[in-house]
Amino acid sequence: MNDSSSNFRLARWLAGFGLLLLAGSFLVVIGGAASSRDLAQIEPRGLSAPNEVVPRRSVAVAFVDIEEGTTPLYPTRPGRVVEVPVREGVPVKKGDILLRVDDSLARIDLQRAQHALQGAEVRLQSALKLVEKHKRQIEALNEAIEVQKAELAEAEAGLTKARAFYERKLGGTKEDVLILEKKVAKAAAGVRAKEKEMQAVQALDPSDAVRAAQIEIADKQQLIKAAEKGLEECLIRAPKDGSLLRVLVNIGEVLGPNPQRPALVFCADAPRIIRAEVEQEFAGQIQLGQNATIRDDATGGGNWKGKVIRISDWYAHRRSILFEPMQFNDVRTMEVLLSVEPNGTPLKIGQRVLVTLEGLAH
Hints:
It is a single chain. Helix content is 43%, strand content 24%. The chain is of the alpha+beta class. The protein folds into three domains: 58-67 and 271-357, Beta Barrel (Elongation Factor Tu (Ef-tu), domain 3), CATH 2.40.30.170; 77-99 and 236-266, CATH 2.40.50.100; 106-230, Helix Hairpins. The strands form three sheets. The chain has a six-stranded antiparallel barrel with strand order 2-11-14-13-12-15. Helix 2 (104-167) runs antiparallel to helix 3 (174-203) and helix 2 (104-167) packs antiparallel against helix 4. The two termini are 75 Å apart.
């Protein structure tokens, strides 16, 4: 009888202990799920009167970023990486070279374009010389025509004199008149020939060759610009002052036209902000100017002060889908940006923080 009572008490004690463990596990799961949501409602710690209305605080898990976000970089022209002159975390200026791929073919294209331009410039000079030569030809023909006209006038005057002498029986013969008539005809033919030669020269306009050479030069100049652009596309330059967060390629690696990941991740030199993604259920509690306390989510340290500076007008999936423990990616969220007051402890890009909204600012 005593053994049965002891066994019964032991069974009851084990059953109670099992229920206690089950309840504890349930609370742990619920607590973990609550902390994983972007925005949850928690009561501030401490005791309060039974009927006192306790202000509630909004808590969000967020990440450190800059307002424009980090920039993935990849060369426009595929090729083999030959140089990565900048290391991660080293400050760079806008326009500094961050990466270079093999530019041998691009340099050959540029040289060919430069040679083609030089050839077009030589042809332009030849065309300009033809214009000057054409001008001199016309001047020479004008003088030749004047000479032919003078000879014609002289022949006509001689013919008139010979006829008068022959008709008045003052001297001369009929043969003299005939000879002078042929001389006049010859001079007139010479004038007509030079005039036709002038027309032929004037019909050939060498300025057309000049215009063609000028068009060719403009075309070759565009080829040079294209070649220079191709050479520049072998480089990745810093889009702004900033630094590299991550170098994801090595010298000798071949970069193709269809990248699966960026070659570099760049961060501009800009103020750090907090990017929180708030679930729709709690978005109505966020307002511009709302003050916030920010702590490191892993250590609980930091204690930065912040303020809501922008609230998105769009419910969408998370900006970045991260497969982290207890993070839900299948919910729609509203993005909220918070400014941060420096406190001597630097914030790192991508750092996960806990944001506690402290009420409305006035």
